[in-house]
Amino acid sequence: MRATEIREGIYWVGAIDWHIRNFHGYTTNRGATYNAYLILDEKVTLIDTVKEGFSGELLERISDVIDPAKIDYIISNHVEMDHSGALPAMVRACPNATIITSAPSGLKGLSAHYGNLNYKPMKTGDSLNIGRRNLTFVTTPMLHWPDNMVTYCPEERILFSNDAFGQHYATSERFDDQTDLAVAMEEAKKYYANIVMCYGRQAAAAWNVVHELGLDMIAPSHGIIWRSHIDTIMDAYKRWSANEPESGAMVVFDSMWHSTEMMAKTIAEAFADKGVSVKLYDLKNTHRSEIVPEILERKYIAVGSPTLNNQMMPEVAAFLCYLKGLSPKNRKAFAFGSYGWGGQSIGQVEDELKACGFEICLDKIRVNYIPKKEDLKAITEQVERLFD
Ligand SMILES: Cc1cc2nc3c(=O)[nH]c(=O)nc-3n(C[C@H](O)[C@H](O)[C@H](O)COP(=O)(O)O)c2cc1C
């Protein structure tokens, strides 16, 4: 396995996880990469490691350019195990290395995971001279763990951005201009929605700092490296972190016997008839991590569930729980569903939508058993009135 030179003396030495399809509950249909970068300078520096189980691949790629024992610094931009899992193996292979981490949270987090190693904590603005290059550290707390930081090399105008700007996308290509940009952007959007969205305020603050740097390259810890389409990904992050979609709708439901499904289709049609772009998702067929990216660009969210044993459907509950955690802002929402007798699910869905902080823009829509033509007509009129 070979290293890929991304700039003179700077190599990608990460691992490609072609087969992973579930990353802590997030579907990764295109696999993933764990990116690590090796800088050859007076002090040999490794930026991030890889997930445990891929340390052999990391060591093989490093060995393609240098004896790993010569590494002086291992920079750990983020404690999470997809970036630090190979740290124990690296410490064994590079006995003289100092581990650079953020202060205080990186130090605390790495110590909790790996015990007492040779750590050197850094604060925002601290720099490390490694020879003809300097590396400057900027902590980015809660983007998306307390310990996160990014590493900037001013001489190369490269930002090693860790999870920011990443995508779960296994490819043999390393750069944005070597692969299909639409796919990279789709995966970047999915990554932002599932991992970063709940920290939109921090993302917007980080965006302002990164924007000033005039970068040649953004080298994240997952997926392809941005060099030809930096503006495209920066513009998308600005839009997503603003969290203020102007239009668009999505209808998300589960259904046992198709009544709630009929209501969902009617609601979707009503949005479309009003010229509002709409997406319809059946939670039986689409995983929640594939639905949430759509929320980034949509203002209206309608969620439907029939009543099952006095409750909403478990898939709907899981979706709403996930959504609440991701906390999209400035959305309008309403609940709907079919029921047999008590019909508690629809109120439960509405309560959860309120708990998400959404404005309830329509009274909950309830239909007893199978919707009749008049019920569906009434639903259409209710939704259309939103735009009168
Ligand atoms: C296993 C089961 C449990 C149900 N429990 C309730 C219930 O507790 N309260 C209620 O109002 N309706 C209950 N129902 C009735 C459904 O909510 C009703 O049939 C509804 O029309 C189903 O909508 P759907 O076609 O979208 O699945 C239950 C139905 C089934 C199959």
Strand and helix layout:
Elements: E1 4-7, E2 10-12, E3 15-17, E4 22-23, E5 26-27, E6 32-34, E7 37-39, E8 44-47, H1 55-63, E9 71-75, H2 81-84, H3 87-93, E10 98-102, H4 105-114, E11 119-122, E12 127-129, E13 134-139, E14 149-153, E15 158-162, H5 181-196, H6 200-212, E16 217-220, H7 230-242, E17 249-253, H8 259-273, E18 278-282, H9 288-295, E19 300-304, H10 314-326, E20 332-339, H11 344-355, E21 359-360, E22 365-368, H12 373-385
Parallel strand pairs: 8-9, 9-10, 10-11, 15-16, 17-18, 17-19, 19-20, 20-21, 20-22
Antiparallel strand pairs: 1-2, 2-7, 3-6, 4-5, 7-8, 12-13, 13-14, 14-15
Helix pairs in contact: 5-7, 5-9, 6-7, 8-12, 10-11
Domain Flavodoxin-like: 249-387
GO molecular function: electron transfer activity; FMN binding; metal ion binding; oxidoreductase activity, acting on NAD(P)H
Pfam families: Flavodoxin_1, ODP
Describe the structure in your own words.
By secondary structure, the chain is α/β, with parallel strands linked by helices. It has two domains: 4-241, Ribonuclease Z/Hydroxyacylglutathione hydrolase-like (Metallo-beta-lactamase, Chain A, 4-Layer Sandwich); 250-385, Flavodoxin domain (Rossmann fold), CATH 3.40.50. The protein is built from twelve helices and 22 strands. The strands form five sheets. It has a seven-stranded mixed beta sheet, covered by helices on one side. The longest helix has 16 residues, at 181-196. The radius of gyration is 24 Å and the shape is elongated. The chain starts with a strand and ends with a helix. It binds flavin mononucleotide. Flavin mononucleotide is lined by residues 255-260, 306-310, 338-343, 369.
